[in-house]
Every structure is written in C-alpha cells, then in structure tokens.
Amino acid sequence: MMKIVFNSQPYAGYFILRRSSILKENMRRDCMEFLAQTTTVQEQNHTISILFSTYTDFVSRIIGLFSKFGCTHVSVALDDDEEHFYAFNTKGFRKEYPKKHKNRTNTNTCIRLKITDSQYNDIKKYLEGFEKQKSKYSYDYLGVTLCMFRLHRNKSKKKYFCSSFIAELLQKSKVIKLKKKNTRYLPYQLQKELLLCPLIIAISQNIFL
Predict the structure, then answer these.
(1) Sequence-separated (6 or more) residues with CB below 8 Å from residue 55
(2) Which residues pair with 4 in a beta bridge?
(3) Which domains are present in the chain?
(4) What are phi and psi of 67, to 5 degrees?
(5) pLDDT class for 196, splitting at 50, 70, 90?
(6) 0.85 exceeded by pTM
(7) 34 to each of 45, 73, 188, 204, how far by Cα in Å?
(8) pLDDT tens digit sequence for 133-170
(9) How far is the CA of 170 from the CAs of 6, 68, 166, in angstroms?
C-alpha cells in the first residue's frame, strides 16, 4: 500500500497540490475561492474516506472503457471505519465490504478528507435516510449510460449510480463545490475534481493489498 499523508492541518493538501505544474490557473483560483468560503470557526473533528475502486463486473467493464481504464466505482466511509463503505451499485443503495468483494481488483485510491461536525452530521443523516428507505431506490442504468456519452437529463429522484450519489452527498453536505451537476460525473471524473479539494489530509493507494 502506498500512502501520501499531508499532515493533520485540514488545508495542507491544497498547498501541496497547488505546486503541481499540471494544474491550470483557473483551477487554482477556484480552490482559493472555495477555501475562503469554507474557512469557519467550526472545529474539524471528523473525517470521511472516498474510495475509488476498479471492479470486473459487466457494468464496471463498460464504465472502464469510457474511463480509459481508470476507476469504475466510488463509495464513502465515515471517520476511520474503512471496513465498510456506502455506495450505489447495481443492487441499489448498499453497505459494501470491499475487502470481501469477489469482483474487485487491487487497484484503488482512497482520499481522506477532514470535515466539520456540521458536515459530518449532514452526511450521517443523509446516509441514514437512504438506509431507512433503501427499498425505494434503484440503480440508474439510463443515467450512467447517458453520462458515459456526455448527455444530460433531469435526475430521477429514486435512482442513482455510484458517482452521482457520492457527488450529491458531497454537494449537499457542502464539503466541496463541484463544477457540474452530480449526474454528470463518472467515478474517474469525480476523482480528478476531488483531488483539488482543500480538505484532503491523506491519499492512499491499493489499501486492500
């Protein structure tokens, strides 16, 4: 497992990333504006882990073709619990155990973010709402297909694919201000944008080896 740890300061990841020559100037400027908007007196006592994985099931292989063989799935865990993650897969809203997933590969990236108590409570409430009514939700096959072809439609209230779900979670809890609507992100696209988030405290690769 390879791990990059910035430090315990919530915005340290940004100052390292901004040195990279691959970032465009407008992206750096957007990060600075977001940083200024989100700097508050609230204590940041919690973390979330966003796991970008590569699976080998049929839907993941199709997404992989459009992702240039990048990550094909994304899920979220609260605080230091990286045994189970929450996500949308082809069975709907599920609690996943990546270590036990028979179709996973060893290629994954875990991005850990430092968040405020308010953001944590919003995320927890959001997940609990899905957990209580998970029978009413299903996988958005049409939505992910249109997203692969860069087409857009109004989101169905009861249907999600993995990256549309995580993008909405991050937006509604005000963890990050994304550039597009949640239904327009495949996992690899969400990963690229999340790497600019000023709340990053650690990035780990291949955590289940």
Answers:
(1) 72, 73, 101, 103, 104, 105
(2) 203
(3) 20-39+46-205 (3.90.1720.10)
(4) -100, 10
(5) very high
(6) no
(7) 20, 26, 22, 24
(8) 999 999 999 999 999 999 987 778 899 999 999 999 99
(9) 21, 25, 6
